[in-house]
Amino acid sequence: MPKLLFLKLGGSIITNKDQTNTPDLQRIEAIAHDIKQALDQDSSLTLLIGHGSGSFGHHAAKKYGTRNGVTSQEGWLGFSEVALRARELNQIFVDRLVDAGVKAISVSPFSGIQAENSRITNWDTSIISDCLYQHLVPVIYGDVILDRRLGGTILSTEELFAYLAPRLQPERILLAGLEEGVWRDFPQNTQLINKIHPDDIAALQAEIRGSGSIDVTGGMFTKVQLMIGLLKQLPSLEVQIFSGSTPGNVQALLMGEYKGTLIRNPKG
Q: For residue range 177-206, what is the model confidence (pLDDT) as tens digits?
């Protein structure tokens, strides 16, 4: 697959994460334009997009504790609500991509994944591979999943990427959020960590903090830890954590620039 990149857009940048079910349409449209510009400028670019649920999914998920399992009828009602809200935001986002001229197609994680104890046990990824082969842009998203042990749960976009990356072999994974990168002193945000190598993770664990908004699927350290796990399987992989709220950043990163925090194995 020529120059395959994974791009994750955090729910915090495409929604107002602290106001229920509120998309940031202006930012979504700007990002859709950035993606279209990058695809037009580089014909070899192949792209898989994932996005978080932000204010559409996290509030309901926290209310019902969906991430931790579903054991009651009320819990299943919450499961349905989280699924509805996640799909609603996905539709809004894909609509804007298509309006911008991107050949985007939604791929529902719920309909294809089997899981046990919050781990994917089976996912037929051939649909995603076929979309990429046809130069479509598949769009996945953090979603509810049926789970053999927990009944139901939620898997984040990063967890979906972690399963897909060894199978699709992207060159880079770009994680766009509100923050400029990984801060050593969040929320003061005066010490940006420019590079992280896998050996750094133990020393950084006490310093890297979580999300400033509701995030039922884990904060920044969880994201970094997942990505470092991928580097063990894909030694040449590069991961960038950067601000998707800064105009032009998404296009710049898709075109190969480095901003924010770079996670990779030491070279040489």
A: 998 998 887 778 888 999 998 887 777 776
